[in-house]
């Protein structure tokens, strides 16, 4: 099979790396890809992956059998709808399905109709109504921009004035077109966990959970980031959490969407809060998580290409996914200034040494090739994943490997997996 992979981060590198192990893969082309993906197949820069016509032209010119989509933006832009109209198979939800992530108000409505446990929520398009509603609540306040905001549209605060100000920013268009919806939610407390599933419209197969680390510094201090690392498996989860999430969340959501005429084929990512009253959904994403994917792919004991191709055709097997007995720990190496103002252009050394180490994988996130070698080109630069029989061994291998890599200003958390 000839596969076109859309995206260019470490998540896509990990997906591409796993797809490349499939005996059925004859060619992998990534758009735009990255220097890690370039070791697995061709990378084509300069094509807008949110532009359906451009993606279709590329797929036709390269006789692509399956398009796999990493990030949410092309999904929300309807690239899968356009591909399917052009007769090209794709793994990922249609625009209507991707609204589970692209509209928090839509996701809440689906959850309510599917009987899925989630916090209460109120949607507003009128600033004064949102402000008045917040007055009636007690903190902490949770205020969210309705649309895609690259993880930046959510404010959780004890400060009523800040919450009201955030509602105004959302409606004024800080995270999308002005006049959009703001969602005010009941605050949930507990421990967070993400559950991922591969869906074929009707059936869903769960991936194993991974725990990520959002804060920049050790001990969960410092600003929020896209994710500084993660590990899998996670030992301290409620018994049967994955099965109950499949049964009580994913399957009812697929059925409710199907009854609305939406066949949801793609990854579904349920962000959950384990509250005293049981697990409740915080949000859905219509794609895999980054950095969770980087820790999960080395553990998945399956032919990923076969799974995604069968899911795209609506015929996933009726069984659980197989996992290797190993653990994985992913440490993100970040640039100076990340997340506010990341530095770039620093020469990266040590990848050759790490490339020769066993039980270590390096997935590229923000790197660019130059005549003088690889340089940094993003806040999160590399993901160093160690694997081993247990989390402690995987952790030691990841950190041993990370110690061989250098670039100016490089920093990383030292407590991932501890
Ligand atoms: P979201 O993008 O909706 O997942 O929100 C980002 C983060 O904000 C979550 O991972 C939580 O840590 C926090 N959060 C979101 N919604 C709530 C809520 N209802 N109660 C408490 N924390 C929340």
Characterize the structure shown:
Helix content is 29%, strand content 27%. It is α+β, with helices and mostly antiparallel strands and 418 residues long. Helix 2 packs across helix 4 (79-85), helix 6 crosses helix 9 and helix 7 runs antiparallel to helix 8 (160-172). The longest helix is centred in the middle third of the chain and has 19 residues, at 241-259. The model has no long low-confidence stretch (mean pLDDT 95). The chain binds adenosine monophosphate (AMP). The site of adenosine monophosphate (AMP) has 14 residues, from strand 7, strand 8 and strand 17.
Percent of residues in β-strands: 25-35%
Low-confidence stretches: none
Radius of gyration: 21 Å
Gross geometry: globular
Quantity of strands, as a count: 22
Overall pLDDT: 95
Bound molecules: adenosine monophosphate
Category by helix and strand content:
alpha+beta
- Percent in helix: 25-40%
Largest sheet: 5 strands, parallel
Strand adjacency order, main sheet: 3-2-1-4-5
Helix count equals: 13
Distance between the termini: 40 Å
């Amino acid at each position: 099979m000839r596969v076109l992979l859309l995206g260019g981060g470490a998540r896509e590198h990990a997906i591409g790396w796993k797809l490349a192990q499939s005996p059925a893969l004859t060619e992998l082309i990534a758009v735009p890809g990255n220097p890690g993906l370039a070791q697995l197949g061709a990378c084509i820069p300069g094509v807008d992956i949110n532009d359906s016509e451009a993606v279709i032209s590329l797929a036709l010119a390269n006789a692509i059998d399956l398009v796999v989509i990493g990030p949410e933006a092309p999904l929300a832009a309807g690239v899968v709808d356009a591909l399917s109209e052009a007769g090209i198979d794709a793994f990922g939800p249609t625009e209507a399905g991707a609204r589970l992530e692209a509209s928090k108000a839509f996701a809440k409505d689906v959850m309510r109709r599917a009987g899925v446990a989630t916090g209460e929520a109120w949607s507003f398009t009128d600033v004064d109504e949102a402000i008045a509603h917040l007055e009636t609540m007690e903190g902490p306040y949770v205020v969210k921009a309705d649309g895609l905001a690259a993880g930046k549209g959510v404010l959780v605060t004890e400060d009523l004035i800040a919450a009201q100000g955030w509602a105004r920013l959302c409606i004024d268009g800080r995270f999308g077109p002005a006049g959009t919806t703001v969602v005010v939610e009941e605050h949930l407390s507990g421990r967070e966990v993400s559950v991922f599933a591969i869906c074929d419209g009707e059936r869903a197969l769960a991936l194993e959970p991974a725990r990520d680390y959002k804060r920049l510094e050790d001990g969960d201090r410092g600003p929020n980031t896209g994710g500084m690392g993660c590990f899998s498996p996670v030992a301290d989860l409620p018994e049967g959490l994955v099965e109950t999430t499949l049964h009580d969340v994913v399957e009812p959501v697929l059925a409710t969407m199907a009854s609305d005429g939406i066949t949801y084929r793609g990854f579904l990512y349920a962000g959950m809060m384990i509250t005293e009253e049981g697990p409740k959904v915080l949000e859905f994403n219509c794609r895999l998580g980054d950095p969770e994917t980087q820790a999960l792919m080395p553990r998945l004991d399956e032919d990923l290409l076969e799974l995604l191709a069968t899911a795209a055709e609506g015929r996933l097997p009726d069984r659980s996914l197989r996992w290797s007995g190993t653990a994985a720990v992913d440490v993100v190496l970040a640039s100076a200034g990340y997340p506010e103002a990341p530095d770039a252009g620093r020469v990266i050394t040590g990848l050759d040494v790490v490339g020769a180490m066993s039980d270590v994988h390096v997935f590229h996130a923000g790197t660019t090739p130059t005549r003088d070698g690889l340089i940094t080109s993003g806040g999160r630069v590399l993901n160093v994943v160690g694997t081993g029989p247990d989390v402690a061994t995987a952790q030691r291998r990841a950190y041993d490997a990370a110690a061989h890599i250098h670039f100016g200003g490089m920093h990383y958390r030292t407590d991932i997996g501890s």
